Design the sequence.
């Protein structure tokens, strides 16, 4: 990634994401994965969490529902010194990589209402990059009391320093 900056990823409702896309943050990586997720009523909690963080899909393991994925997503097994790394009798599927696992993402903007839905995943993120910032949405104003990142930052400073 020498010479290139990091991307900003955004997750939220349609209006929030559209605003950021109109501001110019939308991009696809070389694997055609977007750096944004529009969350609608039909979007499952598993899909939201999978997009946020690395999911553990590995060769030979089926997706969350237990059903095999689309055959077009199947990749051939890798060959090691003693044969295939993934046995030929099991299908091999690419690991899904969420925004936290992508090296080209430096910041994740997530609406606070959405962050509340996947709070354990947001709270578990402890690395500096990508930075996770909770933002307000059209329907849900920002509440500093619910922002886990702000709570962590407050713990680093004495109360007098924050005034």
Sequence:
């Amino acid at each position: 990634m020498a010479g290139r900056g990091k991307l900003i990823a955004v997750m939220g409702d349609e209006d929030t994401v559209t605003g950021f896309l109109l501001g110019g943050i939308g991009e696809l990586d070389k694997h055609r994965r977007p750096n944004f997720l529009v969350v609608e009523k039909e979007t499952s909690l598993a899909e939201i969490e999978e997009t946020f963080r690395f999911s553990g899909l590995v060769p030979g393991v089926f997706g969350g529902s237990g059903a095999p994925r689309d055959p077009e997503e199947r990749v051939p097994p890798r060959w090691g010194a003693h044969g295939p790394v993934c046995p030929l009798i099991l299908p091999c599927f690419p690991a899904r990589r969420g925004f936290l696992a992508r090296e080209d993402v430096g910041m994740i903007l997530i609406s606070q209402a959405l962050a509340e839905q996947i709070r354990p995943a947001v709270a578990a993120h402890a690395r500096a990059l990508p930075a996770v910032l909770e933002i307000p949405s059209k329907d849900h104003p920002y509440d500093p009391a619910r922002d886990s990142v702000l709570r962590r930052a407050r713990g680093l400073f004495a109360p007098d320093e924050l005034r």
Notes: The chain has two domains: 7-55+98-162, 57-95.
